[in-house]
Amino acid sequence: MNKDLTVGEPKKVLWLFCLPLFGSVIFQQLYNIADSFVVGKFVGENALAAVGNSYEITLIFIAFGFGCNIGCSVIVSRLFGTKEYGLMKTAVYTSLIATGVVCALLMLFGILGCGTMLSLIDTPAVVFADSKLYLDIYVWGLPFLFFYNVSTGIFSALGDSKTPFLFLAVSSLSNIAMDVFFVRSLHMGVAGVAWATFICQGISCVLAVFFVLKRLRGIQTAERPALFSFPLLGKIAVIAVPSIFQQSFISIGNIVLQRNINGFGPSVMAGYSAAIKLNNLVITSLTTLGNGISNYTSQNLGANKQERIREGFKAGVKIVWIICIPFVLLYLGVGRYLVYLFMKDITGEAIDTGVIFLRIVSPFYFIISIKLVADGILRGSGMMGKFMISTFTDLILRVSLAFAFSVPFGSTGIWCAWPIGWFIGMVLSVAFYRTGPWNRRVLQENR
After folding, report:
1. Residue 92 Cα distances to 79, 87, 174, 231, angstroms
2. 275 phi and psi, to 5 degrees?
3. Best label site of 4, 9, 47, 250, fewest CB within 10 Å?
4. Which residues contact 180 (CB under 8 A, 6 or more apart)?
């Protein structure tokens, strides 16, 4: 069901729209968490390290999928807000075609270059083969990743956050069952979790694209919309390209960090792999809620209701803080047992590494959540330059400080860089948000 985000009390509208998004991302993260859980429990520490090592490279591909999602979503939601349904359909078709081209190029890059990337990050010999195997299978599933991402972006742009949630719930639960079957029953090891993800993402993708096209056919237009538009592609690219750059640089930064972490050996790699999955469960959830706020912002700007954006920011911060509270309490209180879910032994260097990471980073979820709400508004309003400045500042600080702190403090020093980068990035994002046209002072000056 399509939902107009420009009417109704902003707080209620965002709650109803964002909660299914939150549920969707929880199930989305179950894909990666299930992979690490199954190989950690049923294969061993080296297999867990291999999946975690590969995961940092997969984030580059996910960055492009995210950029295609948000570029399409912002423009489609703006056209939906202005009720230009013909152009909106053309924007959807243009996004799907452009996504197919980008995906094909990335598949070629992945097929030829993943082994080289694993070598560049000093992947230990004991986990290299499994890391390469996981990535080889993952790359062939990129069309499913990309078209599913664009489809969910379209649903969100139309105000429908429930349909993608249903797809992901079924697919993720199926993925867990298939992970266990392939690894424990068929003894396929790392390849088993990769194939399980491939199959389940494929089913989600086919269903999502089918229902998107069906939804579009139900929206009446005066004339048959064009299948492709270069002007609309340009507008999509204005949002998508900076988002891709932002996410790609974050991924590259994580890869650089992974290279540093790899120098501490497989046990630290395994502990980090477990902890970062738990961390990303929170960060990806908050980022997805930020994307929802981008759709809200874009629809309201399209409807020329700028005053609603200010209320949306306040409501957004309340939502993300409420979501942060249980995660912070869990990670601080029972973090060791959560990390142990991925391990065979509750003691040792690997599990200690994961616990230390969570204790250092989790209290600062309240800080990064504010940044991600502000970022959502900046993206939805097209303020991509300012959005990129705050994000790159955060990334550069985290990477450079991680290397500097790792010399005197070891791997613990790497984790300490996270909160500093998040805090500075948050300050910049909020400052940029306050310069937007929805600010009372700016509105008065424009009048």
Report:
1. 11, 9, 29, 13
2. -65, -35
3. 9
4. 38, 42
- Residue 57: both structure tokens together: 């490279």
- Phi-psi region for residue 220, left (φ > 0), alpha (ψ -120 to 50) or beta? beta
CA distance 248 to 261: 19
The dihedral through the CA atoms of 259, 264, 265, 271 has a sign that is negative
Residue 325: pLDDT band (50, 70, 90) is: very high
Helix H or strand E segment including 314: helix 307-340
148 is written with which tokens? Answer: 């599913």
Three-state DSSP class for 6?
coil
Reported as a single tens digit per residue, the pLDDT across 98-154 is 999 999 999 999 999 888 888 887 888 888 988 899 899 999 999 998 998 899 889
Q: Give CA–CA dist 296/312, Å, rounded.
A: 8
- Asked if residue 30 has pLDDT above 50, the reply is yes
Are the C-beta atoms of residues 250 and 425 closer than 8 Å to each other?
A: no
pLDDT tens track for 227-264: 899 999 999 998 888 878 777 777 777 778 888 888 88
pTM of the model: 0.71
Secondary structure percentages of the chain, helix, strand, coil, to 5:
85, 0, 15
Say if CB 25 and CB 171 are below 8 A apart. no
**Axis-axis angle for helices 266-302, 125-140 (nearest 10):** 30
Asked whether the beta carbons of 263 and 42 are under 8 A apart, the reply is no
Alpha-carbon 337 to chain mean position: 25
Q: Which residues, 6 or more positions from 385, have their beta carbon under 8 angstroms from its beta carbon?
A: 242
